[in-house]
Amino acid sequence: MASEFKLPDLGEGITEGQIVRILVAEGDEVAEDQAILEVETDKAAVEIPSPVAGVASKIHVKEGETVAVGQTLVTFDGDGGADEKPAKAEKPAKKSESSGKSAKQQAPQVEEPERKRTKAQPADDDDDDAAAARKTKATPEPPARDVDESTPGGPQRTRAAAAPAVRKFARENGVDIDALTGSGPGGRVLQSDVEAAIGGAPAPGRPSAPARVPAPPAVTFGKLEGQVDKDNWGKIKRQSLSQIRKTIARQMVKSVSTIPHVTQTDDADVTVLEELRAGLKARGEGGPRITSMAFLLRTLAHCLREHPVFNATFDSEAEQIVYKEYINIGIAVDSPRGLVVPVMRNVDQLSITGIAQELGRVAQKVRNVDFTIDELRGGTFTVTNYGAIGGVYGTPVINHPEVAILGVGRTQERLALDGDRVVRRKILPLSLSFDHRATDGAQAARFLNDVVTYLSNPALLLVQ
Amino acid sequence: MPRKTVEIEPRVEYLSILDEHGVVDAALDPRLDGDLLARMFRYMLATRRLDERLINLQRQGRIGTYGPTRGQEAAQIGTAMSIGPEDWTAQAFREMGMMLVRGWGMHMPMFFWGGHEEGNVVPEGVNDLPIAVPVSSQTLHGVGIAWAMKLRKTNNVCLTYLGDGGTSEGDFHEAMNFAGVYSLPVVFIVQNNQFAISHPRRMQTRSKTLAQKALAYGFNGIQVDGNDILAVYVAAREAVEKARSGGGPTLIECVTYRLSVHTTADDPTKYRSEEEVRQWEKRDPLIRFKKYLMERNVLDDASVAGVEEDIRGQIKEAVDYYEAYEGVDPVDPFRYCLAEPSAELVAQQREFEAAMRAEGLMR
Q1: Which residue of chain A comes nearest to B267, CA vs CA?
Q2: Is residue A212 assigned to a domain?
Q3: Looking at the 3D structure of chain A, how many domains does it have?
Q4: Are residues A191 and A332 both part of a single domain?
Q5: Tell me, what CATH number does A398's domain have?
Q6: Searching chain A, which residue's CA lies closest to the CA of residue B43?
């Protein structure tokens, strides 16, 4: 017996939700209450358990799709779905007394449904009446008096649906509103219908009505997602924002519209550091891969201690800078769902190996989309390593309400002067954006200088 | 003329008997009868499983919004089991554990949260007030009942349940004052689950404890580990005995934690950390109590499995029963408004029926 499972109202007054994940495949055998879908609504992301046991014969939705409450999600072949109730109210059978159990098990049971009767549950001794009572009662005949005869207006007249203001407008203009055909939803008579009936002319004997704003053009609802459409220049396609995209958009607008951003750039000569890394790699397998990111985070942890204003948030309401005594660095990562910023906690207390390990763990979690909201919170400074993909300098957007963010470009080989000799060096391009309300360019230059100094002379890290 | 400290008599005690690791304080262990202990466990487990099922039913669209009890089983069942059927309770809306103890059927929360008021009709012979959603209103009703008990010279008591958020309401303070002034046989059970919806306990009051609120009204408050059913039960028994023998009211603050959402329309990740929840999950009232019962040989793996099985069957029966219910006739309100329906009402009824038929909701 097939049954359809439709999207229920998951919160109070929710009208739609976005399918975040589909946890079963078509043809899968599903147990009752097994999680089948993850749906995100305005209120929360929740897992939806299967209402039935059976085979998910058809999945009607895709990940990322926005579905309306009442839309069919999954068709099941099996025992019967939530929509299929037993035809007749079956009274739960009287449970036989638990016999043959140990004394421990004979503890009184939680009351069984039939023991406590309520109006929802009629007594045992009037089975038939009870079943009948539980069935929807037959609608009684309305009293003989007919409404049409007792209300003015005569038989067959229907009263038009219209707002009181429109009725008044019609009355004032001598229009019989009940004779009009409404163009509004459900045949409702709108002011524009009355105006059309008047023919634009004010009723005789009345001062001309003030100029009316013409009825707005029909509201255009958002074009259907994915539907190929065209504008004046050619074909276009619309795509609704995913929930995470919406969040990113909101955060970005908040940051750029409230924080006066300044971006300074500098280069770190990482030739020595890269040699050091090559040496570590040569040491062999076993430990985590020590990336330049691990060195950079170690450097930042030290420099943020020295320049606390960059390890802070800006509280514009209180007009205060909130210095953080802990160093939690957020790392902007391109995840399968979009940009996320997992936070690495107490970076200053980790060794370079520890940081490398932690980086590996975070990367794994992001790849598997296995992180909690909590792991994205509590950052004091952010690093965005777009150089892992490409690019040199950038103008990173600060992770509101933090004070600064460091953009890291791709390490490049460049020619440089060593005295009179031209030498080959490895250069790491850095871009620091900061909140100019919290601090100034001179401070930023000092901070960036220190970062560059440590990265160029990694031996200095050893004596911290 | 002098400036001196005014001594106030009552004190706030804190009571914990069974800690989160299942270690019991031998001196404080009430050494309850095995049968009683097994019943406590059974109710706790039934509450937990029914709660889990109700959340699933909501997620499947089979009931409406639901407010889970997860984590508060010890606070509710420990107190509810300290009184007898002749005593009364005045509850709020998250007391499913207490309701099961008192004799409400497992199907009733389904009816209530499924939008059928039949689920809020107190079963015959049960001395409870219905579920009260307006925060703390029930404390006044509970005090009223206790006052009647005193006037009638019965030796019964009334428990009234509320949460930490409820202690910020005016009704609560009026109830407390009345209870104190008239020395009424009422026990205020404050389930401090740390949140008034999303509002944390620390932002609720500057008071160090909620128990001390009683001091201002001239009676004792005690704070107990609300996840320790032994401590809850011992404190409740003491308060109930005191009230029964004319000693007046007590406030019991059960320090617990709402492990689940406020209601199914809530997303707690927006206001509390998962780390905090993980910490409290370790203090789960069921884990430690089960450990204690195993050590006392009240339960073993086989008997726990048997209880689980029984509960599963009972929940299934309750769900089947609920889903077989066809509800009331939606036209009923038109029938009971006026003895003689007016023409206008009849017209409205017809219009309503037509709309229901158009929507396919009525034949």
Answers
A1: A44
A2: no
A3: 3
A4: no
A5: 3.30.559.10
A6: A110
Query: In terms of domains, do B349 and B303 share one?
Result: no
Claim to verify: residue A438 and residue A316 sit in the same structural domain = yes
Name every chain B residue with its beta carbon within 8 A of the beta carbon of A85. 323-324
Based on the domain organization, do B121 and B151 belong to the same domain? Answer: yes
Q: Show residues of chain A in contact with B266, CB under 8 Å.
A: 43-44
Same domain, B313 and B242: yes
Q: Measured between CA atoms, how close is B177 to chain A, in angstroms? A: 35
Count of structural domains within chain B: 2
Q: Which amino acid is at A43?
A: K
CATH, residue A189: 4.10.320.10
Rounded to an integer, the average pLDDT of A62-80 is 85
Q: Residue A110 and residue B274: Cβ atoms within 8 Å?
A: no
Inspect the interface and report whether the beta carbons of A121 and B341 lie closer than 8 Å: no
CA of A95: which chain B residue's CA is closest?
A: B314
Cα–Cα dist B343/B345, whole Å: 5
Residue range A208-242, pLDDT digits in tens: 333 333 333 333 344 445 556 778 888 888 888 88
Find the CB nearest B39 among A51, A93, A108.
A108
Residues A185 and A251 in one domain: no
Is the domain of B194 the same as that of B226? yes
Same domain? B336 vs B318: no
Among candidates B60, B326, B350 on the partner chain, residue whose Cβ is nearest the Cβ of A51: B60
Residue with the bigger pLDDT between A461 and A228: it is A461
pLDDT at A119 over 60: no
Q: Are residues A44 and A169 in the same domain?
A: no
Nearest by CB to residue A372, choosing from B43, B274, B350, is B274
Domain stop point among A31, A50, A78: A78
CA A207 to chain B, closest CA, distance in angstroms equals: 37
For testing contact with chain B, the best of A34, A83, A104, A374 (most B CBs within 10 A): A104
> How far does A47 lie from chain B, in Å, by closest CA?
8
Q: Is the ipTM of this complex over 0.85?
A: no
- Catalytic residue ranges of B: 258, 262, 271
Domain that holds residue A198: 164-204
Average pLDDT of span A359-388: 87
CATH classification at residue B281: 3.40.50.970
Per-residue model confidence (pLDDT) at position B136:
97
Contact B46 A110 (CB under 8 A): yes
B107 → chain A, closest CA residue: A113
Predicted local confidence at residue B140, as pLDDT: 98
**Interface test with chain B among A50, A91, A111, by most B beta carbons within 10 Å:** A111
Structural domain boundaries enclosing B362: 329-363
Q: What is the pLDDT of residues A178-187, one digit of tens each?
A: 888 888 888 8
Please judge whether B306 and A151 are an interchain contact, meaning their C-beta atoms are less than 8 angstroms apart.
no
Distance in Å, alpha carbon of A51 to nearest chain B alpha carbon: 6
